[in-house]
Structures are given as C-alpha cells and as structure tokens.
Amino acid sequence: MDTDEVLALLRRVAAEVVEPRFGALAEGEVESKGRPHDLVTVADREAEVLIAAELRRAWPSAVVLGEEAASADPSLLRGWADAPHAFTVDPVDGTRQFVAGSPDHATMVAELRSGEVVRSWIWQPQHRTAYVAERGAGAWRDGVRLQVRPGRARRLRGTATCCGIDYPRLAQGEAGWTVWPKTKPWDHAPGSLLLTEAGGWVGSPTGRAYRPGAPPRVLVARAARPS
Questions:
Q1: What is d(CA 227, CA 213) in angstroms, rounded to the nearest whole number?
Q2: CB under 8 Å to 89, separation ≥6 — which residues?
C-alpha cells in the first residue's frame, strides 16, 4: 500500500464504522476503560480491527499496535518499538469529544522503521481534512504542503481537544506550543512527524527529541524548533 492507499483505508473505515455512530451512539455502545473520561466505543473497536487487518494483510511481517488492543493487553507495548517495521493505530483519537458530539476527533496511523516514524496519516472525518507526513519529504494538508510560521503562531492552552486536532493546529501555525502528560505512541507518533516535517519540534522539557519507543514522562510540542 502506498501513502495514498493508506489514507484511503482510513477514510473508508471511518465512513463505514465511525461516521455512522457520530451523534448516534446507542446505549451500551460506550464504556469506560477504568479512568474518568477514558472512554471506548464500538466505533473505536470496530475501526481498529478493520484498519489493523488491512495493514497486516499488506505487510504480514509488521507489528501493528492498536490502542484498544494494547488497552486490553498492555504486554503488547513491550518491545514493539524495536521491531524493524511497525504501525500504530488510533481508531478514534478524541473519543471523549466523539461521544460528546464534537467534530474534533480523528483516525490516525503511523508507520515506524526501527523505532523511527517514517510516515503518518491523520484523517478528521467530520472536518473532511487529511494530514499526511513522510520523513524527509514534508507534511501536507489535503495535498498542500505545511510550513510553520512561528511568528504568527498563538499559544495552545492545554489539550482541550486531542492529538489528532492539536498537532495539526501546531503544524499550521494556529498554536505556538502545548504540553501533554500522557505519551502513548498511538497518540503522538502520527502528529510528531507531521509537526517536525512542518518545521516544529516535539520532545522532553529538557530538550531531548521524541521517540515513540522511549517517550519522556511529559511531552512538549512547539511550532518552532528550540534554538
């Protein structure tokens, strides 16, 4: 599957199982994963299964790490980043917003080679907007290349939405920086490549660049690289 085909997969799966549930979740289709505001829906689970199956079909030797699979079996997180080829899947990033009826959610995938993110995809189904990044080749919004202009950026106050919304805001210069206390790879691998390819920076408060397999306890994202 080439880059466009993976994006088409995300669009198709979102259209099949995510979008029909937006604003129409039935009783019993939303559950808590044990922490306040940490929700999972039938759309999360079904979308992850479909996306992961297609990725494994295209790349049988790749490790596919899905958010919901890892939530059910945390041992899947051990050693996955050391694989020569891996993917992360976040079927509905911003599930809390999705459940609340907010359009600010996304479906995301990242591809890693030997622990380094090399391609990423963010599809915002309600905004009908796609973000794609390839290491060394740039970051793109609906086919238009992104380049951060830090002088025009505004501060993003907290993480009121989700990574699939916040990273694109940073990459488009709509925000200057933000901080995340949670550093799960499916949340940050896709957006980190988008932002760095647009000219931004992601890493620890002490200045160490982000790697999905060894994230810091707190993650900082900036529209401009630190001097």
A1: 25
A2: 48, 51, 52, 55, 64, 65, 66, 67, 108, 109, 186
Closest CA to 218 of 204, 207, 208: 204
- Whole-angstrom distance, CA of residue 109 vs CA of residue 121: 5
Given a contact cutoff of 8 angstroms between Cβ atoms, the answer to whether 212 and 132 are in contact is no
Q: Is residue 227 part of a domain?
A: no
pLDDT digits (tens, 9 = 90+) for 120-174: 999 999 999 999 999 999 999 999 999 987 555 455 544 457 999 999 999 998 8
Residues 6 or more apart in contact with residue 155 via CB below 8 angstroms: 175, 176, 177
Q: What is the total count of domains within the chain?
A: 1
Q: Is residue 160 part of a domain?
A: yes
Q: Does some domain include residue 194?
A: yes
Would you say 81 and 185 are in contact if contact means Cβ atoms under 8 Å apart?
yes
Which residue range(s) make up the domain with 54?
Answer: 3-222
* 160/139 Cα distance (integer angstroms): 24
Beta strand 116-124 with 30-32 is unpaired
The answer to whether the beta carbons of residues 206 and 191 sit under 8 Å apart is no
pTM for the model stands at 0.93
